[in-house]
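Structure ticket #2291
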Amino acid sequence: MKVKILEFVEGARNAKGVAVIIDVFRAFSVACYAIDSGAVRIIATAEVSEALKLKTIYKNCVLVGERDEQKIPGFDFGNSPTEIIKADLTGKTVIQTTTAGTLGLINAVHADAVLTGSLVNEGAVVNYIKAINPDQVSLVAMGYRATNSAEEDLLCAEMIAGELKNEKFVSHTRIADLQNSSGKRFFNPANIDFSPPTDFFLCTMVNRFDFVLKATRRFDGNIDLMKIEL
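Resolution: structure written out below.
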C-alpha cells in the first residue's frame, strides 16, 4: 500500500486511489458530530448559493457552515461541534459548506473512493482502509482556509499514515500542543461566539466515533456523505 500526504485543493485534485480529505478544525469533526446527533446524511457543497438552493429542495434539512470561521447569514448552525452536540438532528439532512473541507471533497475528482478525515474518527478511517486494502492512499490535509498548512490536519495525516504501516504513533503531547499553535484561536476571547474553547476539545477527542463518512458524487456535482459503521 502506497501512502502519500498532500495538501490543499491542489492535493485533493491530485489525490488517487482512496483519498482521505482531512479537516480537523472543524468541518469533518462537525460532520461526525452531526451524524451522531441523528442526521441521516450530509450533503457537502463548495458554494453558499448552492447550499441555499439545496435547502429549497430538501425540506427536512438544516444548513451548517462558515465563512471566515463564522456562521453564514441565514444558516441554522455555524461550523462548530459545540453547537451541533446541543441540536437534535434526528432524521434531518445536513447541508454543509466550509472554506476548506467541503471544497476538498468537491475537488477530489480523480480518486477511486473518498472519505472524510478527522481526529474524532481517525482509527475508524485506518480500519476501513485496511479492510479494503487499496494499492494507493492519498491523505489530503486541507489546512487553514485551504491555503496555509495546519498542524492539526498534518498530524492527523501522519497518524493515519503511521497506523496504516502498523507503526506506533504517540500523539497525545502533540495534540495538547495544538492549543499553542493552530488551535490557539479557540482560546481567544474575541472568538468565543463562533470558535469557543469547547470546539478545540471536541475536535481533538481521538477516536470518539467508530464510523467513517464516505463520499459519493451526486448528479448535481455536490457530495453525499454517508455513514459506514465498523
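Closing remark: The two ends are 21 Å apart (CA to CA).
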